[in-house]
Amino acid sequence: MQFRHPYECGGLYFTLNLCTPVIGLALVLNLMPGESFDELTTKFLTKLAVGLGGGLLCLLGLFFTLMEEKYRRTFLSAETGGQLTRRLFLEGNDLQKAYLFGIHDSHWNPIKDKVEAWVKAGWRQWEVEKLEWFTDEFRSSVPKAWIPERDRREVEEVIEVREQKKDVVVKGEEKQGVRRKSIIDTLRNRNIKIAPAGVKKEQCIEVQEFKREMERRGSIMD
Fold first, then answer.
1. Tell me, what's the pLDDT at 222?
2. Chain-wide mean pLDDT for the chain?
3. Residues with Cβ within 8 Å of residue 52, at least 6 apart in sequence
4. Are the C-beta atoms of 38 and 73 separated by less than 8 Å?
5. Is residue 179 scored above 70 in pLDDT?
6. pLDDT value of position 194
7. Which long-range CB contacts under 8 A does 102-110 form with residues at least 24 apart?
8. Structural domain boundaries of the chain?
9. Rounded CA gap, 111 and 94, in Å?
10. How large a percentage of the chain has pLDDT more than 70?
11. Which end of the chain has the smaller Cβ count within 10 Å, N or C?
12. Nearest Cα residue to 18 out of 50, 61, 51
């Protein structure tokens, strides 16, 4: 059911796919060469197709009848993902509009001017109010040209700090040779250390020691 969302298949396309098996079966029976099947087989398949198709249509009809009215339109909507993104921005509040920067810009390029105007008009106020959604992640996702000049350097520093932290973590893991153990590495018996979840790096153990401990626990259970 989630595939009827505009970011997936879309409502109308999803509903058409539900009806496709019935239509396809009817076409196959009509186009089926007469020499391949005898008359009894053809009649049986026709009855089977009518029964399955009719049953499916009845179930769909019952499903739509019992459904809350506000959800019915979602099965017939032809709204695309981009249209949904633009509608939520134009009709939503600031929190809903902020989600736009987590979506590919091809969705909101047609209203780029309005998005830019919204950012420039509200930035100062958001800085003062310290809204929950006005995070470093949001600020770093906004095009720099849209940010007031005096705040632009601060945002650039935030981005630089985040990148530096990532580099420190990666280099630290490479230097210590410690990482989370995968099943594949265990099977390959590589000479690396294992860091079980919740265990500090200084408590890491060698692969062979880990295997011996598991064997010991297994023998105790037996």
1. 47
2. 73
3. 22, 25
4. no
5. no
6. 46
7. 102/141, 106/82, 107/81, 107/82, 108/82, 110/82, 110/86
8. 2-75, 82-174, 178-221
9. 16
10. 61
11. C
12. 61
